[in-house]
């Protein structure tokens, strides 16, 4: 079997897999022979997605979980080990984006972003890193954003969480280099349900205008697959993917 074929036998875990970039990545990898474990809170959507992937000849399992709970993420990784005996890639994709100005004082929404966007990634690292260290191989793919490179009004806390993803990923890369790869994917404006989490009316309207030029989540899925498919000694540290027409 060629190394190209071997890469497609990899076991890939995806959080936030029930919609958007997570679901698009699952569909793409499923069509190309990767073995998938899909995690999210919405179990019904996961079940439907797994059925779709299996219907096209792919290998996929689902696991209902909430990245805010470390035990859930640990059980997610343990489930993958039980089914496939290894964990090659963890895509830390789950994220929320309830934008608002800081003076709107939506503290609960700030905390929700911190819990999902930062703690969720840390929980993924905590659950999968010991497994990858024991295997002496593995890859973390952490989803940041163009908001992890530049800050804009209403997005201060969201951008802070995505800057944090970049910092955590770079620290992890420096610590585990040699056996384990670390990739940050920073999407520009991408079609997703993220904007639907915005409760602030001004921020919601601004985001609708901002998202008039958007790329499909399959574009981000393609970047994720590219990073996975590189040789073991090649670490694609970061990819920014944005619409050609976007000024941001």
From TrEMBL:
It comes from Massilia violaceinigra. SMART domains: PKS_KR. PROSITE patterns: ADH_SHORT (PS00061). Pfam families: adh_short. This is SDR family oxidoreductase. Residues 10-192 form the Ketoreductase domain. The keyword Oxidoreductase applies. Belongs to the short-chain dehydrogenases/reductases (SDR) family. Keywords: Oxidoreductase.
């Amino acid at each position: 079997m060629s190394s190209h074929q071997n890469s497609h036998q990899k076991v890939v875990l995806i959080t936030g897999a029930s919609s958007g970039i997570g679901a698009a990545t699952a569909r793409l990898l499923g069509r190309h022979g990767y073995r998938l474990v899909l995690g999210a809170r919405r179990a019904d959507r996961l079940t439907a997605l797994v059925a779709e992937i299996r219907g096209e000849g792919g290998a996929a399992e689902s696991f209902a979980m909430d990245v805010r709970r470390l035990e859930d993420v640990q059980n997610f990784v343990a489930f993958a080990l039980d089914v496939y005996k290894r964990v090659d890639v963890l895509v830390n994709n789950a994220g929320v984006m309830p934008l608002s100005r800081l003076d709107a004082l939506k503290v609960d929404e700030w905390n929700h972003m911190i819990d999902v966007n930062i703690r969720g990634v840390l929980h993924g690292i905590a659950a999968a890193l010991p497994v990858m260290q024991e295997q002496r191989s593995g890859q973390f793919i952490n989803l940041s954003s163009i908001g992890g490179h530049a800050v804009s009004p209403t997005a201060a806390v969201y951008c802070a969480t995505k800057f944090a993803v970049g910092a955590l990923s770079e620290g992890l890369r420096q610590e585990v280099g040699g056996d384990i790869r670390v990739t940050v994917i920073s999407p520009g404006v991408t079609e997703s349900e993220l904007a639907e989490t915005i409760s602030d009316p001004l921020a919601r309207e601004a985001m609708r205008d901002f998202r008039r030029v958007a790329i499909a989540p399959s574009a981000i899925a393609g970047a994720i697959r590219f990073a996975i498919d590189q040789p073991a000694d090649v670490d694609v540290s970061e990819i920014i993917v944005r619409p050609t027409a976007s000024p941001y």
